[in-house]
Design goal:
- With about 80 residues, the chain is mostly helical.
- Helices cover about 45% and strands about 0% of the residues.
- It is built from three helices and no strands.
- The longest helix is centred in the middle third of the chain and has 19 residues.
- The protein is elongated.
């Protein structure tokens, strides 16, 4: 059984020039209802709130005072390669 290439609407044929009263009013069948699950709204809201909380109160964040490990590795490598 062949599958149609596109879906056909089941609405009755309407002339190309609708009546003035029908032009401003859309039938209820043309509306698209979008329903989201509860988590599709809740998860982005919780993530946004968590990020906003982290920005507003950084807590005990301090700059690092020790030498980074990569710097120590490069320094030791230079000492080994130097004559």
């Amino acid at each position: 059984m062949p599958v149609p290439a596109h879906l056909r609407s089941h609405r009755p044929a309407v002339s190309s020039r609708p009546a003035p009263a029908l032009a401003s009013h859309r039938p209820a069948a043309d509306r698209v209802e979008i329903r989201l699950p509860w988590w599709a709204v809740a998860l982005p809201a919780v993530a946004f709130a968590a990020l906003l909380l982290m920005i507003m109160s950084p807590g005990q964040a301090q700059a690092a005072t020790a030498d980074p490990a990569l710097g120590q590795l490069i320094e030791r490598t230079l000492h080994l390669l130097a004559p």
